[in-house]
């Protein structure tokens, strides 16, 4: 079960990255060109948020139930904190990805509450841009780029 969940988490990473980068690109371009908020922008915002949420669920299952790395780390947290690769997966990756999810959700709410197209695009560009940057900065790029089921 662990390899399947890890492979799914790996594949979902690409959905999150592509959706986040494309949505952020659209938001920035429309905002800088003084464009309008369209239903397409709204759909891309939702795709990114939903992809993050799906990734979170799979990651949570890995973290809490399936990962031998976290199981070992929780058995001796002191040793885990002294081991940089273990600390990365047990603390740093989790915290930053949760931050990215929060940023995307806050941005989504701010977009929905914004009164003008310019405000919607500005909120989307900034909040989703920072969320995407957090994802890109804390993806474990040292792991295989594609899963080997």
Structure description:
This protein is mostly helical. The chain has one domain (2-138). The chain contains 6 helices and no strands. Helix 1 (2-32) runs antiparallel to helix 2. The radius of gyration is 17 Å and the shape is elongated.
The H/E string reads HHHHHH
Strand content: under 5%
In one word, what is the shape? elongated
Give the rounded overall mean pLDDT. 96
Structural class: mainly alpha
Output the radius of gyration. Answer: 17 Å
Q: Tell me roughly what share of residues is in helical segments.
A: over 70%
For the secondary structure, the number of strands is 0
Q: How many structural units, i.e. domains?
A: 1
Number of helices: 6
Main pleated-sheet profile: none
Distance between the termini: 11 Å
Q: Which regions contain 5 or more consecutive residues with pLDDT less than 50?
A: none
- Give the quaternary arrangement of the chains: single chain
What is this entry, summarized?
With 149 residues, this protein is an all-alpha fold. The chain has helices spanning 2-32, 39-66, 68-75, 77-82, 84-113, 117-138.
